From TrEMBL:
Gene3D superfamilies: 3.40.50.450
Pfam families: Nuc_deoxyrib_tr
Name used for this protein in its record: Nucleoside 2-deoxyribosyltransferase
Highest rank taxon of the organism: Bacteria
Molecular function in Gene Ontology: 5-hydroxymethyl-dUMP N-hydrolase activity
BP GO annotations: deoxyribonucleoside monophosphate catabolic process
Signal peptide region: none
Positions in coiled-coil regions: none
Length: 190
């Protein structure tokens, strides 16, 4: 079974080294890890802009995979990487299992409030809102409810491992638990 390995690790200077470690973990569980930076199954037209070739290549990878594991560690703000979120939703829309993990234990609502700082205020009903009057989502989840809802609805699993900032993008303990969960799902489906 092929697993798409979504996450912001593609932005690391040593992204290929992280990809190799993730592929090895997948292989140890009888799965094939597919990293976004690999050549796509159908090469995009070289005349297209680079950003579009990357997008089409990643969608091609996702379509060629049986499941997805997403690194949902907060990225450049209180929430997960937007591209990773898109990929998770795309795989979920294909009806395939999605799994996720995070290396930050603090809940989404608390992270959002911290990012808003003193501009956050309480409404009369007790809910928090930003300076634009938009409510702050507080469901005691690790990220937006649509992400954890999609993981849950697909039969996937969400793993959490608090990791110090200096190892946040390279620690693979929670990822390994997601791979093991995916392998169990595929074995049970046979």
């Amino acid at each position: 079974m092929r697993i798409y390995l979504a996450g912001p690790e593609v932005f690391l200077a040593d992204a290929e080294a992280v990809a190799a470690e993730k592929r090895a973990i997948c292989a140890a569980h009888g799965l094939t890890g597919v990293f976004p930076l690999e050549p796509p199954p159908v090469p995009p037209d070289p005349a297209q802009p680079e950003w579009l070739r990357i997008y089409l290549g990643n969608e091609g990878h996702i379509r060629s995979c049986d499941a997805l594991i997403a690194n949902l560690t907060p990225f450049r703000g209180p929430s997960a990487d937007a591209g990773t979120v898109y990929e998770l939703g795309f795989m979920r829309a294909l009806g395939r299992p999605v799994f996720g993990y995070s290396h930050v234990a603090r809940r989404f609502g608390a992270r959002t409030l911290a990012a808003l700082g003193p501009t956050a205020r309480r409404r009369a009903d007790g809910a928090w809102e930003d300076d634009g009057g938009m409510a702050v989502e507080e469901f005691d989840l690790h990220d937006n409810l649509m992400l954890e809802g999609g993981i849950h609805a697909s039969g996937g699993a969400f793993e959490l491992e608090e990791v110090p900032a200096e190892r946040r993008w390279r620690d693979l303990a929670a990822f390994t638990r997601c791979v093991a969960a995916a392998a169990r799902v595929f074995r049970a489906a046979r």
